[in-house]
Amino acid sequence: MNDTSVDMTEFHWLMDMVQSIDVGLIVMDRDHKITVWNTFMENHSDKSSNFVRSKVLFDLFPDTPLDWIRTKIDSVFKLENRAFSTWEQRPYLLEFSNYHPITGSCTYMYQNISIIPLRSTKGSVDHVCLIIYDVTNIASQRKELHSANRQLEELSRTDALTQLNNRGYWEKCLQLEYRRFQRDHVPKTLIILDIDHFKAINDTYGHPAGDLIIQEVANSLRSNQRDTDISGRYGGEEYVIILGNVTEKSARIFSERLRTNIEKLVVNYTDVELSVTVSLGLAELTEDCTDPKDWLSRADKALYGAKETGRNKSVLFSSMPK
Q: Does residue 9 sit in the same domain as residue 138?
């Protein structure tokens, strides 16, 4: 009799713990019918344990990812081993609202889940316990950290004045595109463009005027390029862009459109209307190009050719005298 009394006391303690712990706890049978639904689940689902008992979990939450969670639960019954899922794999199992004041920007509760086989006194697994952990604070902090790191990475590769890629990052892109060409041999063309007579603008109107011109040319470059093109500020008044899957002759169509668009620009600075032109050098990446520096050197020679023959024009490296 005393043993029974102790057992009943321990059972009461156990049930009290199940109801009090700050995690969701669901016990269900092989038909996915609920037999235990603790206070955490009642509070966050607005469904009482009396209401959900003997009901199928998926009928109560039709938005639940059925195939995914069924597969998880059934594998626990079949293999009699635990299964897990984290918020990074799937943000949540059941869509509960987030009530954390610190992470109020999160609309729902991020969840980790564990599914545990429960053995009967006969040794068979006829029920599983599904535990839901509220990890909203951890998930929110990690997402914020990831976002901050991404912003820092973006800042580290961005030119502050033009918001184009800076020289260091763009040179890495140049090396990457060169290696890619060695594998797939898809045509790529590099363009270097330079603002004509830029020193005269700085000398006449000052560096703020020069900075404004640099920004407007960068904006024109950005608005003319495709999403797949890789542009950057190479230094001073010089810009670079890699056109993927484009031959040198086709790239000239782009460069001429860009050149004429820049030629039409009118930049207002302290009641003065400024306009500029650019010279462009183009070089297609070919099999005889020895390395990324050689590719860049060819485009630079074409740019020099444009400068030497009158400026405000596009010159192809392939058309230059050998």
A: yes
Rg (CA), the chain: 33
DSSP string covering 293-316, please? HHHHHHHHHHHHHHHHTTSSSEEE
Q: With residue 72 as reference, give the H or E element that holds it.
A: helix 66-79
Same domain, 36 and 92: yes
Q: What is the pLDDT of residues 284-300, one digit of tens each?
A: 999 999 999 999 999 99
Query: CA distances (Å), 219 to each of 33, 174, 189, 225, 261, in order?
Result: 61, 21, 21, 10, 11
Q: What is the pLDDT of residues 170-182, one digit of tens each?
A: 999 999 999 999 9
In which region does residue 244 sit, left (phi positive, over 0), alpha (psi from -120 to 50) or beta (all else)?
Answer: beta
Per-residue pLDDT tens for 221-267? 999 999 999 999 999 999 999 999 999 999 999 999 999 999 999 99
- Same domain as 191, residue 130: no
Q: Say whether 247 sits in a helix, a strand or coil.
A: coil
How many Å from the N-terminal Cα to the C-terminal Cα in the chain? Answer: 107
Structure tokens at 225: 């390029």
Q: What is the CATH number of the domain that holds 182?
A: 3.30.70.270
Kind plus residue range of the DSSP H or E element containing 91: none
Report the C-alpha gap between 87 and 93 in whole angstroms. 9
**Taking the C-alpha atoms of 135, 139, 142 and 147 in order, what is their torsion angle to the nearest 10 degrees?**
-170
- Residue 250 lies inside a defined structural domain of this protein: yes
- Of the three residues 84, 117, 143, the one that is the final residue of a domain is 143
Q: Is the pLDDT of residue 279 over 60?
A: yes
